[in-house]
Amino acid sequence: MKNLDSVFAAYLFAWGIFFVYYLTVARRTAALREDIERLKSSLSRGK
Amino acid sequence: MTKHALGIAAVVFLLAAAAYGSFFVAPTDVRQGLIYRILFLHVSSAWTGLTAFFICFVANLMYVWRRAPRWDWLGVSAAEVGLAFTTVVLVTGPIWAHPVWGMWWTWDARLTSTFVLWLLYVAYLLLRTLVEEPDRRALFSALFGIFAFLDVPLVFGSIRWWRTQHPQPVVMGEPGSGLDPTMWSVLRFSWLAMLCLMTLLLLARYRLEAMRGDLEIVRREAEAA
Q1: Quick one: pLDDT band at residue B123, thresholds 50, 70, 90?
Q2: ipTM of this complex
Q3: Mean pLDDT of B30-56
Q4: By C-alpha distance, which of B81, B34, B115 is closest to A9?
Q5: Would the CB atoms of A17 and B222 count as touching at under 8 Å?
Q6: CB B15 within 8 Å of CB B193
Q7: Which residues on chain B are in Cβ contact (under 8 Å) with A4?
Q8: What are the tens digits of pLDDT across the range B85-110?
């Protein structure tokens, strides 16, 4: 089982990169949604 | 369960099946042993990254032609997703190279052109943060994206045109090159799983960019009112 740790490390890094990237996209989307809601409510207050 | 959650579950299942195939279905390579199994992850990520950059290139061309914001949104989304896949390529490659070559990295044509590709798309994303006006930003980044894509044929051809430390192509290579049929099937399945992951990430990123575009329009209207 030579180099098994390297193979696991490669898979772990790869899945980690994809997972973290997906999380950043989800977080940015949630933050933007909040911005839109805030803007909508401030616009409706101004009317 | 929502459509989105179902999509995530399907992609996770495909990725798990691809990993199972890489570890338990593909036969062990006689010369490299276990370490060659990184190939299924590394090569499929590389092909998927290049596919994402191709989508970015087409979107950039379409933006220059049509000037419709949706092409800009698709371009930046594909560039970012392609960058994530190319990062995986640049991380998994050295992990494979260290036990096989005895070194993590060498500046041969394939590795250098791939690293340059990664830098070009980082520059593409950075460029977007420097231009505030949306239409100018979209046009500049589309033109830069078209220029950045010129490196993709170089990455593809590097191991065919020059002598490199990186292995010669096993797919679309010279006569006599190729993979064992089971390895080839596992590699194709891994690529399919990666393409599904790319589609999922691309859709999520596109939604974010479309929301940003809408927000910019609302802000402009609010400022004008």
Answers
A1: very high
A2: 0.92
A3: 95
A4: B34
A5: no
A6: yes
A7: 34
A8: 999 999 999 999 999 999 999 999 99
B134-141 long-range contacts, Cβ below 8 Å, gap at least 24? Answer: B134/B69, B134/B213, B134/B216, B135/B67, B137/B72, B138/B63, B138/B67, B138/B69, B138/B72, B139/B63, B139/B64, B139/B67, B141/B60, B141/B72, B141/B75, B141/B76
Residue among A7, A17, A18 whose CB faces B37 most closely: A7
Amino acid at B136: R
B1 has a pLDDT exceeding 70: no
Q: Provide CB contacts within 8 A for B90, sequence distance 6+.
A: B114, B115, B118
At residue B179, does pLDDT exceed 90?
no
Residue B51 contacts residue B195 (beta carbons within 8 Å): yes
**Are the beta carbons of B104 and B71 closer than 8 angstroms?**
no
Cross-chain residue pair B91–A10, CB shorter than 8 Å: yes
Please report the pLDDT score of residue B76 as a whole number: 98
For chain B, the structural domain boundaries read 17-169+178-224
pLDDT of residue A47: 63
For A18, other C-beta atoms within 10 Å of its C-beta total 23
- Dig out the tokens for B123 from the structure: 């520059």
